[in-house]
Design a protein that fits this description.
This protein has 407 residues and is α/β, with parallel strands linked by helices. It is built from 16 helices and ten strands. The protein has a single domain, classed as Alpha/Beta hydrolase fold, catalytic domain (Rossmann fold, 3-Layer(aba) Sandwich). Helix 14 links the parallel strand 9 and strand 10. Helix 1 crosses helix 8 and helix 8 packs antiparallel against helix 12. The radius of gyration is 20 Å and the shape is globular. The N and C termini lie far apart (60 Å). The chain binds 2-acetamido-2-deoxy-beta-D-glucopyranose (2 copies). The site of one 2-acetamido-2-deoxy-beta-D-glucopyranose (NAG) has 2 residues, from loops. Pfam families: Abhydro_lipase (PF04083). This is Lipase.
């Protein structure tokens, strides 16, 4: 019993590391896993990624209601010209990622750089637990309590605080751009009237609110195995694949035992346009840690097909929510006046087309849609052609709103 639980947990470690992460492209690239061992840069995100490409960048810090200390970066155009800043745009990353995800390729391929060069006042979000956030006012990362949250808190507290902070610094409504888990957070936050009133418009890459139809075979197998619950039962509260244990398990598992290239496909879908030779540099930064509770919440969504708050079980739900089932996030309460753009792909095994359609059916507004038949989950962030294929359409949407003539 103990042994099989360990085997399941070990498998889980491996698999989770690939969930929504950029880690692996094909089998022959897999030696790159040893790069996980390399120490991630300890300098700031500005200093290690953004400034070296010639973009002015400043670090900001803000506190959530529940005491987490978040890092934000503010980036402006590489042209260096002194000009009034354009409208603020907040970039909110996906699971096992952080703000670096928007700057991983060259300045003419990466959305963060592209938006800055189009005159936007670019703000980069980093949720609690990632390496660009700064811990908690009283808890240590070694405390179980530090990891007691899911995307629900990331939406209502982290994203809520980022929007509030940017709104108050810039005195302007904020454009929000999210990828994957960043879109779950965004859609949940937009159901909150006090938050959405500070949002100008949203662009969602691989939009997710419902996860009931994901086709990622490997993820579905883990859901069936109740891996999320096993991990929590074992007292593992932080999922960190850059820890000693995490990298050791990855090395063992991927040393010929598993087709790791196929694994990425069976988790994210077939990515058409991902640059395999850049995996080494992605692995310097990804994956970032998250909480086991967050994984559990995501698996609940897959099992139940709902877009709802964390399910503690009937009795605890009564205590937390005064009802037996967790309250749902009502997409219908997102104001129809909020302009939304969405990019989604036919090969995305996580943001499945039928789940996207479900989301669209419940939204009061009709978002601008970009559908790319051959795009997988990672392509929307890291395709070598994402500028032409995706970001140009997003930029056209933003400028169609006529907020400013500078972009
Ligand atoms: C993108 O920038 C690189 C250099 O950073 C350059 O070699 C390449 O031609 C550029 N590509 C496009 C499409 O502009
Ligand atoms: C793919 O990545 C390699 C290594 O960074 C780079 O030299 C090459 O230009 C990239 N290819 C494209 C199409 O961006």
């Amino acid at each position: 019993m103990e042994f099989s639980a360990t085997v399941i947990a070990v498998t889980g470690f491996l698999v989770i590391s690939f969930l929504l992460s950029t880690a692996v492209g094909s089998t022959e690239d897999f030696i790159a896993v040893s790069n996980l061992r390399r120490k991630s840069p300890t300098a700031s995100l500005c200093a290690s990624v953004i400034e070296p490409s010639g973009f002015p960048c400043s670090e900001h810090i803000t506190h959530t209601k529940d005491g987490y200390v978040l890092g934000l970066q503010r980036v402006s155009s590489s042209s260096g010209a002194v000009q009034p800043r354009g409208p603020p745009v907040l970039l909110i990353h996906g699971l096992f990622m952080a703000g670096d995800a928007w700057f991983m390729d060259s300045p003419n391929q990466s959305l963060g750089f592209i938006l800055a060069d189009h005159g936007f006042d670019v703000w980069v979000g980093n949720v609690r637990g990632t390496r660009w956030s700064h811990g908690h006012v009283s808890l240590s990362e070694k405390d179980k309590k530090f990891w007691d949250w899911s995307w629900q808190e990331l939406a209502l507290y982290d994203l809520g605080e980022m929007i509030r902070y940017i709104y108050s610094v810039t005195n302007s409504k904020v454009f929000v751009v999210g990828h994957s888990q960043g879109t779950i957070m965004s859609l949940a936050a937009f159901t909150q009237p006090d938050l959405v009133k500070m949002v100008e418009a949203a662009a969602l890459l691989c939009p997710i609110s419902y996860l009931g139809h994901i086709t990622a075979q490997f993820v579905l197998r883990l859901v069936k195995l109740h891996l999320d619950e096993v991990i929590l039962a074992m007292g593992i509260h932080e999922l960190n694949f850059k820890s000693n244990l995490g990298t050791r398990i990855m090395d063992i598992m991927c040393d010929g035992h598993v087709e790791c290239g196929d694994l990425l496909t069976s988790i994210t879908g077939k990515n058409c346009c991902f640059n395999n030779s850049r995996i080494d540099s992605y692995l310097e930064f990804e994956p970032h840690p998250t909480s086991s509770k967050n994984l559990h919440h995501l698996f609940q969504m897959i099992r139940k097909g709902t877009f709802a708050m964390y399910d503690y079980g009937m009795w605890k739900n009564m205590r937390y929510y005064s009802q037996l089932e967790p309250p749902v996030f009502e997409l219908s309460s997102i104001p129809s006046s909020l302009p939304i753009w969405m990019g989604y792909g036919g090969n995305d095994a996580l943001a499945d087309v039928s789940d996207v359609k479900h989301t669209l059916k419940e939204l009061p507004s009709k978002p601008n849609l970009l559908y790319l038949d051959n795009y997988g989950h990672i392509d929307f962030l890291l395709s070598v052609k994402s500028k032409e294929d995706v970001y140009d359409s997003m930029l056209a949407f933003f400028s169609s709103l006529g907020r400013s003539s500078s972009y």
